[in-house]
Amino acid sequence: MNDIEERLRRTLGHAAERAPRLTAPAAERLETGYRRRRHRSQALLAAAAVVVIAGGVVVGLRAGGDGTALPAVRVSDVPSAMTSATPAEPVEKVWPQAVWKMPVKDSEGRELHPVALTDEGTLLVKAWREVEQPETLYLYDLAKGDLRKVAEVPASGKSRTVAANFSMGEGAVAWWTWAKTSVRLWTVPLSGGQPRQVAEHKTGGDVIDNLAVAKGAIVFSTMKGGVFSVPLNGGQVTPIERGAGLHLLSWPWAGSPGAWSPKDGAPFTHLVNLETGQTSDAAPAREGEQLLACGVESCITTMSGGARAFTRLRDGSKQQEVPTGFQIPEPPSQSRFYVRTLRSDTPGLGLYDLKTGTLVDLGIGNEAARGEVPVADRAGRMMTYRTGNTRYVIDLSRIP
Amino acid sequence: MQQFAWQVHLGGDTDDERRRQLEADPRFAGFVAERGDALLRYGYVLAGNPHDAADLVQEALLKLRASWPRLRAKDNPESYVRTTMARLHTAAWRLRRRELLAWDPPEHGHHDALPSEDEQAMWEALSGLPRKQRAVLVLRYYEGLSDEEIAAALGISRGTVRSQASRALGKLRSAVGEQIEEGVGSERGEWR
Asked: Kind of pairing, strands A57-58 and A375-376?
């Protein structure tokens, strides 16, 4: 070891002695935080589960429902992936119409990460070298395999800043970047061009928890609560009156508690339609159950101890049992799809369809050990993951 | 440090296991109590400041907590946490989420500077390194890992470990060199 190395080793050793010490009760706080995160995942899960929009109307929010009687579900009725003796079939064999494969990198070697599907058979993709520091936005033509650049994501000064919540709508992509005491809102036409900073909004360190493009505006909410809007062409950031203290779930719905504040109860039990003022309050949990989270359409509950889990519409109808034991509390996209472990002896992930009881092999084997899990877009329409040199995109809306 | 092997524990399908996954686990609490300070020390040399150190430790322990029911006896939670911390650090993970862990200055009081000037200069020079380079140096000279182990921990190739380390050492050499030329003349040339 030469001098500089020796000096470095000494420095690190001595510096470590100056490190802070944990104050009790660290474990309890982590336990609380862990639960909060679980809740948050469940909230995302519920949020992603429910964006079912037909002609602009969110299906499933009709108060009172259609009075369907709750089906009785016995545990033995629940298909169990764990006990299945037959190996799951590959996803591309079971649902070939829903599976797309694409390259993992662009021509400059930057990793491609799908954001969302458009209705024109293209995929909005961000590319980065450093995790969560997107440099370029592309539209990827799934059928042709073409990658077309939409825009370069501007860096601030020398270093790249985190750019988050890329959202599409009205022919534009919008996102925000963090600037310590404020947030900056950006937009670029989906057809391509130079990104424009639409506004800078002083937040005093608060960050954005959700963002959407709607009604010619960027609509967003902050972690501490409050929904705001700014015209896509720029202008004043103004609070949306009906959204005071609320969190954007999915335009036009905002509610409380937010996904990040579950100590106040299950997220999004209270919802407000920002356009019409209609409100929706979720049916309370049944006896022996606990509400975990709600979305626009449904809520998720568990029985105490987590032995069983159920999804129901917000009014409490249309119960379905969610088999527990799925590995990752990933959004059950389209109210149906759960990521589950496949095998007991080796890593492997499958996708489980609550509607039909089908379990397919996603082809994620050892990658699962390195933390590769399918990621759903915020609408819950698409799931994406990487295995080796292939990126999979699963269009869940094409699964009958 | 061995690479953490993900073990999926499918015994979790029984009611008992499921319940365990949701309940506070005293073994986890024990691990945090026993190893928390050491992890914070590691986080501190990785990140260079107590705030980011606490962030790293918190994030990694939360991930460990989530995997805890799937850990088996042969898995090493400490190596899992350390690997996670190094990866988080190099992933430029930055939105501050510290909300749970409170920390106190060390027992002997929090000094502004390291006892020796050459170490203080080195510590300051370290803060100028890109995250990956700093992580490689910390894993090599603080954790005492081999280049192969570093490659596995950070998920990069051995060649990258070597090139990052040599680039980082080069930067430290010139940075510390300037410091010494400005101030502590007596040590000049020691490293050249």
From this structure: unpaired
Give contacts of A 161-220 with B, CB under 8 A. 162, 178, 207
> Is the CB of residue A130 less than 8 Å from the CB of residue A143?
no
What are residue B106's phi and psi, to 5 degrees? Answer: -60, 165
Considering only CB atoms, A20 lies closest to which of B18, B22, B54, namely B54
Per-residue pLDDT tens for B117-171?
888 899 999 998 988 999 999 999 998 889 998 998 888 899 999 999 999 999 9
**Which domains, and CATH codes, for chain B?**
1-110 (1.10.1740), 112-192 (1.10.10.10)
Q: How many residues does chain B have?
A: 192
pLDDT one-digit tens code per residue, A302-315? 776 556 778 888 99
The average confidence (pLDDT) of chain A is 77
**With 0-12 CB in 10 A as exposed, 13-18 as middle and 19+ as buried, what is A211?**
buried
A170 burial class (0-12, 13-18, 19+ CB within 10 angstroms)?
middle
**How far, in Å, are A80, A101, B21 from residue A143 at the CA level?**
35, 10, 43
Mean per-residue pLDDT for B3-10?
25
pLDDT digits (tens, 9 = 90+) for A262-292: 456 777 899 999 999 999 999 998 988 878 7
Which of A2, A3, A4 would you mutate first to test chain B, the one with the most B CBs within 10 A?
A4
Read off the pLDDT band of A69 (50, 70, 90): very low
Cα A269 to Cα A46: distance, rounded to the nearest angstrom: 11
Helix B158-182 and helix B117-126, axial crossing angle in degrees, nearest 10: 130
A351, β-bridge pairs: A339, A360
Q: Is the ipTM of this complex over 0.95?
A: no
CA dihedral A37, A38, A41, A47 (to 10 degrees): -110
